[in-house]
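S1.2 Input.
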Amino acid sequence: MRVLIIHQVPYRKVHYRRALDHERHDVTYIGHPQRMADLPSDLRARRIVLESDEDLVAGIVGRVGPEDGFEHVIALSEFGVLAACHVRAHLGLPGSTLAESERVRDKVKMKVAVAAAGVRAPRFAALPAADGTLPWSGRTVVKPRQGANAEGVTVHDTAEAAVAAYLAADDPTAFELEEWVEGAMHCADGIIDGGKVIGFSVSEYINTPLDFIDGVPYGAFHVPDAERHREFVQSVVAALGIREGSIHLEFFVAPDGEPVFLEIANRVGGAGLIDAHLRHTGVHLPSHEIAIRLGLPIPEPDAPSGKYHGWLAFPGHHLPPGSQLRAAIPDDLRRNTCVDRLHALEPGDPLPDHVTYQEWLVPLFFEASHADSAELAGFLTECARSVVMTEVPG
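S1.3 Output.
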């Protein structure tokens, strides 16, 4: 089998060879230099390195063609989903159409689809009415229609203030307006095969991605009885026509206990979600996705840990370039039995200059677990409250 992989997700997160035998199959990786540099040197594969500032789609279609005989194109990054559609069309390969992929990238199109299917979702608008109003008046979110990681998202106390911010944007049509939803923010991470949810876990957030943008720790922990959300998850998948691959579905649990759709991505979740799901369920999400997309046997799962897992990331992107941070971790937290791994930058290591949740890039990152979800939640919440990050001279 000849496979073209658009390489954007760090290799250490995906471990392509867990599912794809590089000795048996003819594999080609293509991508920008920084990402291509993280491929293991002993990985048997062809490598095509684009220019640093080269457009992804133009770079790929300019270097590969139907004559190369590729049978599949794999893209596991949210930012590669639409690119893969263009590349498949260029190579004459079947797969998700651009319209299908846009439903899981464009936040207006996805909410139109789920609302039409009767899934509970916040009120939203692609643009204000002709008189500049919205059909609600309270707290309102303005967010990029095709954004990720909460970048570019702003929250406003009133609909009027949100409309003003929307209209002030360089390109307002790139944004949507959304009614604020009260409730605890959750995510479901799992695998879809043939349009069916074949397994997932649910995590509750500690703070939110938007808080992280502003310099606040952010994390998640598994919650029990995730199966009570199966009907909700399946209804979202059906409404959007997602046929295969990983999903990362964010939703609120409203005060009445019911889930409220926020957004979904047809790819693996970031931060510590892949490893947490693996330990909790035994399923390595990227490997299962690759196997399903390539028609290969699904790998046997590992033994589940029998515990709930979670993680907590401390940001550094919000500080000026050249800044340094020192973490003061109380001994009772550092030595707590919940701690599985503790990642920290070494003195002198640069802070990230962009929003990232990767454990090897942020100043401090906890991986934790416990047999009791509430105990795990309490531990990670206390870490977020009690660990002091102090800026020191660079």
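S1.4 Remarks. The CA atoms of residues 122 and 179 lie 6 Å apart.
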